[in-house]
Amino acid sequence: MSRILAKLETGRILVSDGGWGTFLHKKGLAVGDCPEIWNIEKRSEVLEIAKAYVAAGSDLIETNSFGGTSIKLKHYGLDKRAYELNKAAAEISNEAAGNDVFVLGSIGPTGKFLMMGDITEAELYESFAEQSKALADGGADAICIETFYAIDEALIALKAAKENTNLEVIITFTFDMVLEGKYNTMMGVSPAQMTQELVNAGADIIGTNCGNGFEGMINIVKEIRSANNNIPILVHANAGLPIIHDGKTLFPDSPELMASLTNKIISAGANIIGGCCGTTPDHISRIKGVVDIYNNSLITK
């Protein structure tokens, strides 16, 4: 059993980190630029982000590698540097984490569709395998395959991570509300379907990220938990749904609001709680305060 799963076996709730893209843009990353090249060219800036989440109380922090497959990096002419950029991403977060915080190697979708003939299974597998190996070599404690929406691509990413590292694998999907309060991905995958497919394929932790604030995540987590009583669930919620104001993207949910909903997320069945777009170290610090009270109550019972 991995150290992360061993922690969760105690019944404790773990706190993850918050948004990386939002933070990078605040530091000067221009829209359309490659975030992963900052792991080499602006290493200290990336390290500051990781350290900020550790200081806020995160038990787990991610890596600056969401778009780090060679397939995605090809857009920037950086596909031949995929291993280098991902290994550097993991090394940066590992430096910030020290001995007490877990590092999750972030892997995002490629944007290519098997059903459309955009790419082959072999090409997907090779790209995910290279990224997984690089993140593991850089010191990641787990692979976090996140923001996926298609079962076929997620299963290939899971297989590549499992076969090319000895790390546990987390997979999260992004869901949107459809009719009558139901949630599906853009490819029509429900939380229950995702749960069945990924658990059967050997995912260690599953969950949901992006696309919703905490309020929307509550029912998604409930559906995942109703489909499986045992699998650990990770939630990375946005700071609400984005609002465009004066040409800027704003996220309305304050740290206080997210903290006020944390116990509801726990009650729904979440085991790891963090943030996605728009969330900051302030959000994570407030969530951590609520989680600490919950975890301390376990000791006194």
Write a concise keyword list for the protein shown above:
12 strands; TIM Barrel; 12 helices; 301 residues; two-stranded antiparallel sheet; globular; 16% strand; eight-stranded parallel beta sheet; alpha/beta
Number of helices: 12
The largest sheet has its strands arranged as 1-12-9-8-5-4-3-2
Helix residue percentage: 40-55%
Biggest β-sheet description: 8 strands, parallel
Uncertain residue segments: none
Q: How far apart are the termini? A: 26 Å
> How do the SSEs run, as a string of H and E?
HEHHHEHHEHEHEEEHEHEEEHEH
Shape: globular
Got a strand count?
Answer: 12
CATH class: Alpha Beta
Describe the protein's architecture and organization:
There is one protein chain. This protein is α/β, with parallel strands linked by helices. The protein has a single domain (3-300), classed as TIM Barrel (Alpha-Beta Barrel). It has helices at 3-9, 21-26, 38-41, 43-56, 70-73, 82-97, 121-137, 151-164, 191-201, 214-227, 255-268, 281-300; strands at residues 14-15, 60-62, 102-107, 142-148, 168-173, 176-177, 183-184, 205-209, 233-237, 243-245, 248-250, 272-275. The strands form three sheets. The chain has an eight-stranded parallel beta sheet. Strands 6-7 form a two-stranded antiparallel sheet. Strand 10 (243-245) and strand 11 form a beta hairpin. The mean pLDDT is 96.
